[in-house]
């Protein structure tokens, strides 16, 4: 049976996005079954508009250039790559209700679920990560 | 060394070399050899770990200037 990797994405900055999607795509490339639960600010990482310009930490704006020089893929590219490789995205229903967001605000192909949806996947996970 | 497929991942940063390697490997049959070219220094350990984890055999690696080359036989 394949390894299973369960990730919680709870923060919405550019660094957070790279941590989440690099680990997720690398895991998927290693034949793992991967699901990410996006909650609170983490929802920014799959928000159709917000994910195109995620903020850098204050005072670190100059690092933007470093990303370009290192030829790091953009977040939208990583998101579609992750999905293409079978990474499952679960958006937190409760946070969406609190923030007045609907499924249409997010990239295509996501699931919307509650904490139990994630826990059910995570209970048999070999690796669980929180970002 | 004769490879059945060559993947060029030069200039790409993590996790792209691994993603390209996986996609290349998916097109091969068991026993065939994939050759990968990268410039990402982290890929040296990453590709070894990836091959091990997927059960493939890392046959050889070489350094030519800035380019690292790997040969992996599909399990």
What does this structure look like?
The complex is a heterodimer of chains A (131) and B (75). Chain A is α/β, with parallel strands linked by helices and 131 residues long. Chain A has a single domain (4-130), classed as Hypothetical Protein Ychn, Chain: A. In chain A, 37% of the residues lie in helices and 18% in strands. The relative contact order of chain A is 0.25. The model of chain A has no long low-confidence stretch (mean pLDDT 94). Chain B has a single domain (5-73), classed as Translation Initiation Factor IF3, CATH 3.30.110.40. Chain B has helices spanning 16-26, 43-54, and strands at 5-9, 33-38, 57-64, 67-73. In chain B, strands 1-2-4-3 form a 4-stranded mixed sheet, covered by helices on one side. The radius of gyration of chain B is 11 Å and the shape is globular. Classes of the chains: A alpha/beta (131), B alpha+beta (75).
Proportion of helical residues of chain A: 25-40%
Which strand order do you get reading across the main beta sheet of chain B? 1-2-4-3
Output the CATH topology of chain B: Translation Initiation Factor IF3
Order of helices and strands of chain B: EHEHEE
For the residues shown, what is the average pLDDT of chain B? 94
Largest sheet of chain B: 4 strands, mixed
The H-and-E topology of chain A, N to C, reads as: EHEHHEHEHE
Total strands of chain B: 4
Let me know the number of strands of chain A: 5
The first-to-last residue Cα distance of chain A is 26 Å
**Structural category of chain B:** alpha+beta
Q: Can you tell me the residue ranges of chain A where pLDDT is under 50 for at least 5 consecutive residues?
A: none
